[in-house]
Amino acid sequence: GENVEQHPSTLSVQEGDSAVIKCTYSDSASNYFPWYKQELGKRPQLIIDIRSNVGEKKDQRIAVTLNKTAKHFSLHITETQPEDSAVYFCAAKGPNTGNQFYFGTGTSLTVIP
Amino acid sequence: DAGITQSPRHKVTETGTPVTLRCHQTENHRYMYWYRQDPGHGLRLIHYSYGVKDTDKGEVSDGYSVSRSKTEDFLLTLESATSSQTSVYFCAINADRGLTEAFFGQGTRLTVV
Question: Does the pLDDT of residue B2 top 80, yes or no?
Answer without folding.
Answer: no
